[in-house]
């Protein structure tokens, strides 16, 4: 069997990243693959989790960005109202992308926009009762998905992984 064909046969306790790293160690033994063992898994898990999130959102007809905006409004507390500037800080969207997202949410009657009392130029977005009901249902599904994703870890392992991921995130530049 050719060497490349052998590398495609996963061992029972290996994941796709193990296979990729084995191939790179064979082809480029001069490169230290240890960082890719972490980063490759984070990227792969991110894709899997995002796919799962999209599937859980299908019923709500929300995009991931729309969910993020509604969730940010919901977790801001009553009256569930924020300016686009404050929303953008949390959701990390450009001004144009935020406006487009808010337009879609407003068209579905999930939010309403109105002028701020202290600055008539600023339009704040607020959840409607329909929007709150939808985000509460969607967030329950997201939390359940998160629980399912870490079900293979003990509480201690999950806490340690969260700690290490936070440490890694704080080390990386923002943006």
How do the helices and strands line up, and which of them pair or pack?
Elements: H1 3-7, H2 16-27, H3 34-57, H4 64-75, E1 81-82, H5 84-91, H6 95-107, E2 111-115, E3 123-127, H7 129-149, H8 155-171
Antiparallel strand pairs: 1-3, 2-3
CATH topology of the largest domain: Arc Repressor Mutant, subunit A
Strand order of the largest sheet: 1-3-2
The radius of gyration computed from the alpha-carbon positions, rounded to a whole number of angstroms, is 21 Å
- Report the uncertain regions: none
Could you give the count of β-strands?
Answer: 3
Explain what this protein looks like in three dimensions.
It is built from eight helices and three strands, in the order ααααβααββαα. It is mostly helical. It folds into two domains: 47 residues; 78 residues, Arc Repressor Mutant, subunit A (Orthogonal Bundle). α3 crosses α7 and α4 crosses α7. The chain has a three-stranded antiparallel sheet.
What does this entry show, briefly?
This protein is mostly helical. The protein is built from eight helices and three strands.
